[in-house]
Amino acid sequence: MLMATRTQERDSLGSNTLSVALIGPDDLRRSAVADALAGSQAHVAKMFASYPGIDDVPRLLESGYDVVIMELDSDPERALDLVENVCADSS
Q1: Which one, of 56, 59, 69, lies nearest residue 21 by Cα?
Q2: Can you tell me the distance from the alpha carbon of 45 to that of 29, in angstroms, rounded to the nearest whole number?
Q3: CB-based burial of residue 34 (10 Å sphere; 0-12 exposed, 13-18 middle, 19+ buried)?
Q4: Spatial contact of 20 and 37, defined as CB atoms under 8 Å apart
Q5: Could you read off the pLDDT of 59-77 as tens digits, one per residue?
Q6: Please, what is the end-to-end C-alpha distance for the chain in angstroms?
Q7: Cα(14)–Cα(49) distance, rounded to whole angstroms?
Q8: Rounded Cα gap, residues 76 and 58, in angstroms
Q9: pTM of the model
Q10: Is the pLDDT assigned to residue 9 strictly greater than 60?
């Protein structure tokens, strides 16, 4: 699941980089996504080993990630509930 936000930061070379949050309890999947992003202009700013609570959504959004990638397979109901809250709070 991808969600874009409105912020971008410039790296030391002046090009745009994307700040990415990877969320999901599966270490191998998070690592695989981080490795795939390593050759891009994306910077994995934070990896979450579990789904944040609904009360943590405002803090997650305040962090200014450009993209949030969330694993849905481990706990689809909880993940989709979190996605709904992120989308509702980010508008």
Answers
A1: 69
A2: 16
A3: middle
A4: yes
A5: 888 988 888 899 988 889 9
A6: 17
A7: 31
A8: 21
A9: 0.73
A10: no
DSSP sequence for 9-44: EE-TTS-EEEEEEEE-S-HHHHHHHHHHHTTTTEEE
Beta bridge partners of 2: 69
* 81/11 Cα distance (integer angstroms): 33
Per residue in 59-75, is it b (16+ CB within 10 Å) or e — as a string?
ebbeeebbbbbbbeeee
Q: Tokens 């891009």 appear where?
A: 40
Token pair for residue 52?
């944040």
Structure token pair of residue 61: 């959004």
